[in-house]
Write a structure and sequence with these properties.
With 151 residues, the protein is α/β, with parallel strands linked by helices. It has a single domain, classed as Beta Barrel (OB fold (Dihydrolipoamide Acetyltransferase, E2P)), CATH 2.40.50. The protein is 29% helix and 41% strand. The protein has a five-stranded mixed barrel. A hairpin with a 5-residue loop joins strand 2 and strand 3 (82-89). The chain is globular.
């Protein structure tokens, strides 16, 4: 019977070690991200290609990324969030790819379709939604931590 407390203690220690390793690797919780300054958010952000974000999404979950793009669609969720679909810009050119779309969860200023914006945000995984035409589409999902909406 005395083995149970030892096993539970070892499980708790192992759990703490896993959490430490996750956060030490650059993953952020929502509360951690909200405690960061704009400078810290921008300093931690990585630039990743759209294709890599789609193909290797799991390795970026919890990390802060940077994207520039053009707003293609805006809608509000029942939970009170604004969702922005943004066509991302190729970092090496001024071309916006209409098929390279990211799903942005955000609370912020009023945007219009066609606006050009820059965002720094936490990758949350992939989001699947139903298009107006009834097709199912899956996009990389990013929670915006900071944005420059005047670009």
């Amino acid at each position: 019977m005395k083995r149970a407390p030892v096993i539970i203690s070892l499980a708790v220690i192992a759990g703490i070690a896993v959490l430490y390793l996750l956060f030490a690797a650059g993953y952020l919780t929502q509360s951690q991200a909200s405690e960061l300054t704009v400078d810290q958010i921008q300093a931690q952000a990585i630039t990743v290609s759209y294709s890599d974000l789609v193909r290797n999404n799991a390795q970026y979950v919890g990390k802060i990324v940077y994207f520039r793009g053009q707003v293609t669609r805006i809608f509000d969720t029942p939970e009170g969030f604004t969702v922005v679909l943004m066509a991302v810009k190729d970092p090496s050119s001024n071309v916006y790819y209409e098929n390279d779309i990211v799903w942005l969860d955000m609370n912020g200023p009023q945007l219009n379709e066609g606006n050009f914006i820059e965002i720094w945000g936490r990758v949350d995984g992939m989001e699947t939604y139903k298009t107006a035409q009834g097709a199912m589409k899956t996009l990389p999902e990013i929670t915006v931590l900071y944005g420059d909406f005047a670009t």
